[in-house]
Amino acid sequence: MNTLYGGDDPVFICICNAVTDGDIERAAARGACALRDLRRELGVASGCGRCAGAARACLQRARAAERSATAQTPPGGGRTGELYSAVRSRAGGVS
Ligand code: FES
After folding, report:
1. Which of 20, 42, 55, 59 could form a disulfide with 10 if both were Cys (CB 3.0 to 4.6 A apart)?
2. What is the atom index within ligand 1 of the atom nearest the CA of 49?
């Protein structure tokens, strides 16, 4: 499953270097936080450069998804996770 765009197939973000949204998602998980990181690691935007905007947007989505997943998974998970969700609900946060 393509977590960034919801489809089952990879979406090519950088045609010149055959970089997909999944490649960018994995780069984000390894710590890429800016276009220059994607350029260095994957070659994104090092050819024609037309992919720069889409790559940036894809990276932002990947980082937001990662932050969201991290925020909802407390250390320990399991029962701790249930308590964590209950506390967040009472505090008015998103459960
Ligand atoms: S599409 Fe990415 S450099 Fe050309």
Report:
1. 20
2. 3
> Positive or negative CA dihedral for 74, 77, 80, 85?
positive
| Size (the chain), residues | 95
The number of domains in the chain is 1
pTM: 0.71
CATH number of the CATH domain containing 16: 1.10.10.1100
The range of the structural domain enclosing residue 61 comes to 12-90
- 84: in domain: yes
Nearest atom in ligand 1 to the alpha carbon of residue 19 is: 2
- Name the band, by pLDDT with cuts 50, 70 and 90, for residue 95: very low
> What are the b/e assignments for 6-42, b being 16+ CB within 10 Å?
eeeebeebbeebebbbbbbbebbeeebeebebbbebb
Q: Is residue 17 part of a domain?
A: yes
